[in-house]
Amino acid sequence: MQVDFYQLSRDPVDQVLPAIAARILGMGERLLVVADEPERLARISEGLWNGPPESFLAHGTAGDGREDGQPILLSATCVAANGARHVALADGVWRDEAFGFDRAFYFFDAETIEGARSNWRTLSKRDEVDPRFWRQEGRKWVQGP
Known about the structure:
By secondary structure, this protein is α/β, with parallel strands linked by helices.
């Protein structure tokens, strides 16, 4: 399983996630977005809706019904009711349920960096995990330390 660690230093997750979600949908896949705080999920939802018309990202929230038809599902738990094989952990908290997915996107910021460092050390020792680190340089993402 691939785990992409995204260090948010310039833009918040609600501004970064739409580009990643668009790439996942472009591959014909689905995405589960997980965060504990309803306010964060609301900001992410707004970010997904507010792009230009050609980049419309249809999505729904767990508990609103018709979850199985949503290409992007926002949830407080790692239950992929939409059948997603990709999960975005959008609140800086690693969840072991992410091991049930093909790929995880783990977003963290200055407030959650210590947990991310600890998770990097732990996950990089697991044979089944291919961890990758991404950082912002200006408006683009660069892979590496």
